Amino acid sequence: RRCQALAFLKMATAWGLLLCALVLSECVCARAQKEPEEDLLLLDDVDLNAHVASGAPLQSHPRSRRLMEQCRRRRVLSGQTAPDPASIAESAMDPSSSSGSISRRLSSQLCQLCPEWSSWSDCSASCGGGTQRGRSPYCGTVDFPCNTFPCPVDCQVSGWSGWGGCSVGCGGGVQYSTRSVTVNQVGTGAACPSLTRSQSCNTWVCPVDCQVSVWSGWGSCSVTCGSGT
Q: What is the pLDDT of residues 40-58, one digit of tens each?
């Protein structure tokens, strides 16, 4: 019984340690997700330059290290490959990689690795192409194009022309009137109406002259003498 009690105690202790490890892991992850983001653009260039000039690596600068770790953690939590701080620092220190200060080059590197945007503004235009401002802790504030589709324009037409000539002089014909497009339809604007209309004309009966045959031959006289017809 004593051995059974010891075995049970060991099993309970193992399960307890495992449970503690799981709880601790969840707490660490929750803390990492809730940790406030720092803004890379608030880095002091003078402080960074002095740090680098002293011979210290860029990734050892307190703010730079926190920002790199923040980006690394975000990528790991989203299932992506964690970036190497040394390679990020090397690119940021290379003037040929991009123009600007060290902090600006570091911003460019982290912006490519962690381009997560938030705080989107409304588009400046509902159609026809506007700008929408987004913000990222690494990329700063950037304007993006939005609502680039053309604005709808209703079709507009001129007034009707006068009626054209009738197709026939009598007996019922057709004559036409037209109009033209002055403003073309764009996008979901109203479509153009019909540009041609017609009406009946000269509907009266055409005049027809009476026509007769030629005279027949003369018939026999009504009497044989004494003047007949």
A: 544 556 677 777 777 777 7
- Is residue 93 within a helix (H) or strand (E), and if so which, with residue range? helix 85-93
CA–CA gap between residue 114 and residue 73 (Å, rounded):
10
The number of angstroms, rounded, from the C-alpha of 43 to the middle of its chain's C-alpha atoms is 35
Q: What is the C-alpha to C-alpha distance for residues 192 and 186, in angstroms, rounded to an integer?
A: 10
Instruction: State the Cα–Cα distance between residues 161 and 85, nearest whole angstrom.
Output: 76
- In terms of Cβ atoms closer than 10 Å to its own Cβ (0-12, 13-18, 19+), residue 61 is buried
pLDDT band at 96 (very low <50, low <70, confident <90, very high): low
Q: What number of helices (H) and strands (E) belong to the chain? A: 5, 6
The span from the CA of 61 to the CA of 25, in Å, is 28
Confidence at residue 154, expressed as pLDDT on a 0 to 100 scale: 96
| Alpha-carbon span 71 to 138, nearest angstrom | 9
Report the DSSP pairing between strands 130-136 and 196-201.
unpaired
Tokens 């996008």 map to which residue?
187
User: Tokens at residue 85, please?
Assistant: 């701080």
Q: Do 67 and 1 touch, CB atoms closer than 8 A?
A: no
- Look up residue 1 and give its two tokens: 């019984």
Contact criterion met (CB below 8 Å) for 91 and 109: yes
E-state strands within the chain: 130-136, 140-146, 156-157, 173-178, 181-183, 196-201
Q: What is the pTM of this model?
A: 0.45
Among candidate residues 46, 92, 30, 50, the one with its CA nearest the CA of residue 67? 92
